[in-house]
Write a structure and sequence with these properties.
alpha+beta; Arc Repressor Mutant, subunit A; Beta-Lactamase; 2 domains; two-stranded antiparallel sheet; six-stranded antiparallel β-sheet; about 250 residues
Length: about 250
Amino acid sequence: MKKNYHASTIQRAIDVLNLFKEEHKLSFTDIQEELKFNKSTLFRVLYTLEYNNYISRDEHGRYELGINMFILGNQISKSHKLIKVADQYLKQFSVQINMTVHLGILDGYDVIIIEKYYPPGNIKMFSRIGSPVPPHCTGQGKTLLAYSPPKLVERVINHHGMKRYTPQTITTLEQLYTELAIIRERGYTIDNSEHEKHIKCVAVPVLNDRGLIEAALSITGLVMDFSSDAVIEKYARALQEVRDKLAKEIGYI
């Protein structure tokens, strides 16, 4: 690591947390003897971690990992489980309909593609696994926003803005909120060439057992692949069936 980029205080906090890879509980003395920090420095590091719920103390004053470590770890496990379960369904579905299938999540203020499948010989879409996509004009983004709290929607849009990509792009909050209401009522999202010309998308939400949004599942193709409302409806229902199988196996249903 380059010394200019190294934050020593953060490194000390990481060193403390790393000790819990081997031990469930540690006393102040255990940590001090292992890391050789002076006592006042260690106290400040432990106090800050405890204040932010990354560690906690039991009735005997010993330190253990806190609730925020569990929450962060659970976020990672959910994404991995989504990908693992989705793998067996989405590849087959992508080949069956001969279109690209995406699985995405809202990570902070970014819509991130965590899995993508496209059938051999088909047109490759610009999206890449791990890359963000605009939230206001994509099937993934609008689906995730439609089922998120209004305050989060506002923060996401304030963070990203509403850039116009095509003549169909929604560029005002009023239009967007109207669109999100339609999505919730209809149960699926349509990206009508709003991000890329000549490309259409249909997406559905993946909700957990509490009815909260976990991910968005979508199919993407050329405009000619979605030639009528009836065809769009057919693909939406097929996508919902795949979504329900995936959600049931994960335990959301």
